[in-house]
Every structure is written in C-alpha cells, then in structure tokens.
Design a protein that fits this description.
Elements: H1 2-36, H2 40-68, H3 70-90, H4 94-122, H5 125-157, H6 160-180, H7 195-218, H8 223-243, H9 259-286, H10 296-302, H11 304-324, H12 326-346, H13 354-380, H14 387-414, H15 419-440, H16 453-461
Helix pairs in contact: 1-2, 1-4, 1-5, 1-6, 1-9, 2-3, 2-4, 2-7, 2-14, 3-4, 3-6, 4-5, 5-10, 5-11, 5-16, 7-8, 7-14, 9-13, 9-14, 9-15, 11-12, 11-13, 11-16, 12-13, 12-15, 13-14, 14-15
Length: 470
C-alpha cells in the first residue's frame, strides 16, 4: 500500500507539472522574447522543438522502462526534467530556452510513458482504476490550469518562476520514488529497442517543420524549402522500411491496417495540433502591444474557455458516443471546431474580448467531442494485447500534430502580426478542422460499450494523453 501511495503521488505530481508546463509556455513566450531579446518567430521552436522530441521519444521511453526498469527510467526522466527547468530558468538567450525545452520534451514524454506503467504494477483491481482516475485528473488539471498559472506567475514573479517551481516539484518526486516504488520490468518484452525508428521520426519531422517555419521567407519553391521537404520524405520512407524489418518496431505496421485506429489517430493529431496552434497564436495576439495588449495573467484568463473547455466536456463524451456512435460524435465535434475557427476569422475587432468567447467555446466543445471519442476508439478498436501499442501510436500523433500546426500557425501569423495574422491562422486551422470532418467519415460504424469507470478515466486523461479505456 505504501508503494502504491508513493507511485500515485509521484506519477500524479509529475504528469500535472509536465502538462502545466506544456500548456503554459505559449503564454510565456512574449515575456521570454522581451527578456532574452529573441523574436517570437524564433522562440516558436521552444514549442515545436518540445513536441518534435516528444514525438520521437514517447514510445521509446516506455520501452526502455520495460527493459531497463521502470523506476530507474522514471527517476532518470525526473532528473532530466529538473535539469531542463533549471537550464530554461537561467537562460539568457533564446538558444538556451530552446535547448532546455528540447530536453524537457524527452523528459516529459518519458515521464508520461513510464508513469502509467508504474501505476499499473503498483496497483490492481478497483485500486488501479482509482489510481489511474487520479492520474487522469492530474493530467487534465495540469493541461487546463497551465496557461492561467503561467500568466499569474509571469506577472508576479517573472516567467522563470514557473520553471523553478516545476523543478522543485520534480526534484521532490525523486527521493519519494526511490524510497516507495519497487523496481519492475517486463520480462516478456523483446530486448531490442528501435533507436533507428526514433531517429528517423525526428529526421522526418525536423526538416518538415523547418520548411513550414521558414517557407514564407525562403519562398515555397526555393531550393532550401524543397530540399527540406525532400529530406523529410526520404526519412519517412526510411522509417517505413525500418519498421517492416525490426524485431520490435516503434510503430507496428500491422496496426495501420485498422481503419478505426488510423482514423482515430488522425483525428487526435488534428485536435492536438489545432489546440496548440490556437493557444500559440492567441497568446501572441492578446499580448501584442499594438493590439489588445493584455497582461500575461489576463491572456491566461482569456484562453481559459479553450483550455478548460476540453476538461468540462470530457465526462459527457462517452455516454453520447454510446447513443449516437463514434463517427457521429467525432463529425459533430469537427463541425463545431470548424465553425468556431470560421467565426474567429470574421469577428469584429470592435467587439473586444467578447468577440472571442463564442468561437472559443465552440472550438473547445468541438475538440472535446472529437478528442474524447477518438482517444477511446484508438484503444477500443484493437485486441487487448495491442492496446498499449495503439495508445503509443496515438500519443505520438499528439506530439506530431502539435509540432506541425504550431509551426504552420506561427508562419501564418508571422507574415503580418496582429488581427490580420490571427485571421489567417484561423483560416488555416478551420481548413485543418474541416479535414477532420472528412476523416470522421472513414471510421466506419463503431459504437462503444456503455461507459464504465475505466472509460471515464480515459476521457479525463484524454485531454492530454491517450490511455487504455479497458
């Protein structure tokens, strides 16, 4: 029981801090930009870089825990997270901030991957459901409260204080984990680790994001832009070839034949990307001195309808999907999300913040519907022994979506910062959300079982992560 309690406290505290940091960074960017003297266009790599590394590492982090010891890898990730927070807080340059965020992407994704494994080993039966419920609640609370906490701390103690507090919490989790959590491994897992797949994921994403970010300046038909796209395509082809041959692939090619899983993963990618893109561009616009000129705290409060809306909607998604079917609810969700972004493009600047409320609520409700159903469908559509692999694929998609759409919205907004850039970014995100409507029709008919405790846990955590609902 003591061990279960220690694992619960350590994993819940770590996932809360990881998600709060992740969602807060966009609110901090204007303050960081002013402090280190680097433009927002460069600092967007603090957001996209985190997601790029997370996408490459999240599955590998879980695999390393199963092989080398979950407690050992979890503690290592905590220490790396502390180092990343200290590096960011002490950074006097944009490069230091970005480097710290890259490390944080590796640490955060590994903490998420190993945290659930530690809980699963330390508990069983009803106690496991309760433990994972609390873990899911901590994930959701961190994701929703991050922008508000980041804004409040930036205005009162400086943006560095968020990272000092996060470092202190993570550091406190280290001795707690060492003293109260038993070491565990998976003796049945192959000892091979797909490092080649991990590197090829990064090799495909980095040049692609670079092209999206710099394309407006380089020219979309320039040799540099086309070269980045070509390098990305080559790495992607290499990844496909490697995954077909390695003993323990990062992404099992057989799972990609499952139409429900593929469609659900694509929906998760779009939701995660659109949400992160929205938070990025809204933070810049709301704090723009030539625009609303809000304080960081006011900007955090202003984005609360979008950040917290997903959490509020989550408990209602599973019962609705049981009655209407997953495809119907996901389609409704993307219709609402598309409509919300469309409203952002035409809002009157004379309306002030009031003009944002209805679009943000529509986006949040729509994303909640689409994300909740897609998260549960991703793991419910595969056999029990493949649930972990399906969860890893969809969690990787969250990081990929965040990296791609933050880069795209940053490029769109950067061409003419202000109301015009916000409108262009909203058009882009509306188009991506509309693509989600098309993808929803690819689900086929899938009606989940009546929601139980496990599915409610999955819905709560689904704001930030995909976890097995059974």
């Amino acid at each position: 029981m003591v061990k279960a309690g220690g694992a619960l406290v350590a994993t819940c505290a770590s996932t809360l801090v990881v998600n709060a940091n992740t969602s807060a960074v966009s609110i901090l960017l204007p303050a960081i930009s002013e402090d280190v003297g680097v433009g927002a266009a460069t600092l967007q790599w603090a957001v996209t870089g985190y997601s790029l590394v997370g996408a490459a590492v999240i599955v590998t982090g879980g695999v390393l825990g199963d092989i080398a010891g979950r407690r050992r890898v979890f503690v290592g990730a905590l220490l790396l997270f502390v180092v990343s927070c200290v590096l960011i807080a002490l950074a006097g340059t944009g490069a230091g901030v970005i480097a710290g965020r890259l490390l944080q992407g590796a640490a955060g994704s590994t903490l998420v991957a190993c945290g659930l494994s530690l809980l699963s080993v330390a508990t069983s039966g009803p106690a496991r459901v309760r433990a994972v419920s609390l873990w899911g609640a901590a994930s959701a609370i961190g994701a929703a409260a991050g922008p508000l906490a980041g804004g409040a701390l930036t205005g009162s103690a400086g943006w560095q204080s968020l990272f000092w507090i996060a470092a202190a919490i993570a550091a406190a989790c280290v001795p707690l984990t060492v003293r109260t959590v038993a070491e565990s491994r998976d003796p049945d897992r192959p000892r091979a680790v797909d490092f080649a797949g991990m590197l090829l994921v990064a090799g495909a994403l980095v040049p692609f994001v670079l092209a999206l970010s710099e394309g407006p300046d380089w020219g979309w038909g320039s040799a540099a832009t086309l070269g980045c796209f070509a390098a990305s395509a080559a790495a992607l082809l290499g990844f496909v070839a490697v995954e077909r041959r390695v003993r323990a692939p990062l992404v099992d090619p057989r799972l990609l034949r499952n139409r429900v899983l593929v469609a659900a993963t694509a929906a998760i990618l779009i939701v995660a990307g659109a949400l992160n893109g929205l938070m990025y561009v809204m933070s810049l616009y709301l704090q723009d001195p030539a625009g609303p000129a809000m304080s960081p705290l006011a900007a955090g409060l202003a984005t609360l309808p979008a950040a917290a809306g997903l959490v509020v909607v989550a408990p209602f998604v599973s019962p609705l999907a049981t009655r209407l079917g997953t495809r119907t609810v996901v389609t409704i969700g993307f219709v609402l999300t598309t409509a919300g972004f469309a409203l952002l493009t035409i809002r009157s600047t004379a309306a002030g913040y009031a003009g944002f409320v209805v679009p943000l609520i529509a986006i949040a409700v729509g994303m909640g519907f689409a994300n909740g159903c897609a998260s549960s469908a991703a793991t419910a559509a595969v056999p029990v022994h493949e649930v972990g692999a399906a969860s890893g694929i969809s969690n990787m998609a969250r990081y990929v979506g965040a990296a791609l759409l933050v880069a795209a919205t940053a490029a769109s907004y950067g061409t003419a910062p202000g109301a015009g850039g916000l409108a262009r970014s909203a058009v882009l995100l509306a188009a991506v959300s509309a693509l989600g409507i098309v993808l929803a029709l690819c689900y086929g008919r899938h009606r989940p079982s009546p929601p139980g405790a496990a599915s409610r846990v999955a819905a709560a955590a689904g704001v930030a992560h995909t976890i097995p609902g059974r």
